[in-house]
Structures are given as C-alpha cells and as structure tokens.
Amino acid sequence: MQRNVAVLLPLTGPNAVLGNEMLSAARLALSRPAGSTTLKATTSLPQVDAHDTAGPGGAAGAAQAAIAAGDGIILGPLTSPDTSLIAPAALQASVPVIAFTSDANQKRPGVWVFGITPQQQVDRLVAAGVAEGRHQFAAFLPDNPLGHALGDALIQSCHAKGLADPLIAYHVNTPEAISAGLATLSAYDSRVAAASGQATGSASDLPPDLAAALSSAPKADSVAPSDGNTASANKQITGGEAGNAATAASQALSAPPFDALLLGDLGLSLKNVIDGLKTNQISGSQVRLMGPGLWSAFSLKLGSIGGAWYAAPDPSDRKVFVQNFTTQMHRAPKPLADLAYDAGALAGSVSASSGGKGYPVDIMTRSQGFTGVDGLFTLLPDGSTTRDLAIFEIQAGGGARIIATQSTRGPSAPDAI
C-alpha cells in the first residue's frame, strides 16, 4: 500500500503565508512523475497529507497525527525548535524526517537537516580557497548564533582538509570593538613596527597563536599562503590596540597572518567591519575575503569588497521550477519554497524506486545523491545533507557573478528529481 507524504508546516498564524507557499511547492513536486529511470509504470505518486504546526497541539500534535495516519515520511517542520519536538515520536515510529531547518544540531540518523547550513557554505568556500592555494584561514565574526555557527564550521572544514587551525575572533557590534578586534587578529601593531624598522618585541608580547602565525605570514606583495605551521588558534581573540594609523598609512605593511578571512556580519555591522579592514590594512590583494550566502540579498551594495566570495545555489538550476510554480500559482516562489519542492520530489523519487513500498534509508542516502532545484545534494546517514554550491565573487561595481560551480560527483551523474 502506498504510504503518503506528511508535510508539517505553519499553515495558520504569523508564518502562514510562507508555510502555505512551501506546501504548494511540495504538492507541485508530488504532482509530477519522478525521473524516468526510477519511476515504475504501475506505481502511483504518494499523496500529500498536510498538517498545521501552528494549530492546536503544535508541531508535536501534527507529527502524532501524521504517524497515526500511517504516513511514511515527514517533510518539515520549518524551525529548529519544532524539529526537536517531533523527532522523538518520528524516530520511535521509524518515520524519516526531512526537516527544513538549517540548524545542524538537529541532525541525527533518521532526521535530516535539509536547510542550507553554514557548514555547507563554509565547506565550499574552504575547498575553493585551498584550490586557489590558500592554507591559513581566519574568521572575524559577530558574537551571535550565526557567527558561532560559521566559526564552528570553519574549524571543522579546516580539520577535514588537514589545514592549520583557523584564527577566530568574535566581536560585539560597536565600531571600536570591531576595529580593535581586527587589529589584534591581523597583528596590526607588529606589522606597523616591522614596516617602521622598529623592534617588534619578544614573542611573549603577542598572543602565542599570532606570534607563530606572523612569523610565517606572506609579505605585502605576495598572495601565496603561509607554510601552514601556524599554531593552534581556534580560540576567541579579544581586545587589541588600533596601532599607529599615521605610520601605517605611509608604509606598506606585510600581510596579516592569514590568507583567507571569513566574515559573518550583515547590514551596518558589515559596514563597520569593512571600515575596520581598511584601517588595519587587511587588503583583498593579500587576503581572500569570504562571507555567508546571505550576502546575495544585497550584493549590489558590496562593491567596496570586490573580490570577496560567498557560496550559494546557482540560480540557473531553479529556472524550470520557477516557471512551473509561476504558471500554477501566478507568482514567483520564495527561496524557501525550493526546499519544499526538492523534499517533495525526493520523496516521490524514493517512493518510486521502492515500488511504492515506502522510503528506505538506503535509497534516501544513495551515494550519487539527487539533482534538485538548488543543485546536487546528498543525504548522509548521520542526518546531515551535503550540497554542491556555486562560488559567487563580488564585483568592484557591486553585484556578484558565479566564478565556479561545484562538481564533486563521480563520473555517473545522479538522476534528476
């Protein structure tokens, strides 16, 4: 018997517009046959069983209703707290969950985090940086959940690549704190002293991680990375002096003790960070600046950091979905509708591959992954999702262009869904 697809979303309340749009996207995906290589001619598509996570009983009640109805897979819920509420019941009933949250802490076998996560973005940026020849990464990040998620992701990515531990500093959102933090992270005072021919003092005058990193930092006219002998530095760095701005302005400083710098700020705080980069002579000619995919929403305003990168889905991958959605709904879809469509298409494809008998984990986690409207993705047994994101480069006049698409698969391409 065909096991239907439960979709758990806020269909009433303040997030009802988004929830209903995502529900429409999931229904659109499940109204279309799966890839011709997987669809059995005698297999019908599963039906959508929608449940309101904002209704009586909340997300937990919605999950219990879906399980009681015999649904074979749950798409949703939308948020991290709701995911934590439904996971125990779903796991006990052996019903897989494709959650739309981007909180990697919610992943576990049987519960997949399907949102585009900081880890996915940072993994792609680090891979591109290494391909460019950069080996000493650093991060200057806001002291908030996004900043810490990006910092944790950078540590994991560097470890996975066998790189030196990254230098990481977290800051509060004041211009003074930002400038001082960047001065310390970039060893600004020591670089000024070196440019002035002054003694830089003993290594004990600097934090040990910066002293070690500075000793192997590239020179001002070089974009080559350091030799990778930086000491462990994945601790928070705070404070620092602004240095002698007048001296620095008249002399070319050596490069900071890193050749790639991950940022995480948005809005006015990002402007303050950009000003701090200039003050502390952290130049894009020496350091590859990187940032979150959220930069795509206002890339036209980022011309002052031309050359900076962010990782995000290639918009050309979603053109057909946008056309189909617009035809049916008479409006273009919001970005989160992509997730619901891909989750619905995944459920349809897996159901077809099993001959309508359910949603086996071995098919859901197949190594070649699936081609979705946000690019290639793979569900891993531990509940995480890998995504092949494109690298966008900020242009000097503002806006961004794709400079690299990801292609990490083997010679056989995955089926489209």
From TrEMBL:
<keyword id="KW-0813">Transport</keyword>
<dbReference type="Pfam" id="PF13458">
    <property type="entry name" value="Peripla_BP_6"/>
</dbReference>
<feature type="region of interest" description="Disordered">
    <location>
        <begin position="217"/>
        <end position="237"/>
    </location>
</feature>
<comment type="similarity">
    <text>Belongs to the leucine-binding protein family.</text>
</comment>
<feature type="domain" description="Leucine-binding protein">
    <location>
        <begin position="4"/>
        <end position="175"/>
    </location>
</feature>
<keyword id="KW-0732">Signal</keyword>
<keyword id="KW-0029">Amino-acid transport</keyword>
<dbReference type="InterPro" id="IPR028082">
    <property type="entry name" value="Peripla_BP_I"/>
</dbReference>
<dbReference type="InterPro" id="IPR051010">
    <property type="entry name" value="BCAA_transport"/>
</dbReference>
<dbReference type="GO" id="GO:0006865">
    <property type="term" value="P:amino acid transport"/>
</dbReference>
<feature type="compositionally biased region" description="Polar residues">
    <location>
        <begin position="227"/>
        <end position="237"/>
    </location>
</feature>
<protein>
    <recommendedName>
        <fullName>Leucine-binding protein domain-containing protein</fullName>
    </recommendedName>
</protein>
<dbReference type="InterPro" id="IPR028081">
    <property type="entry name" value="Leu-bd"/>
</dbReference>
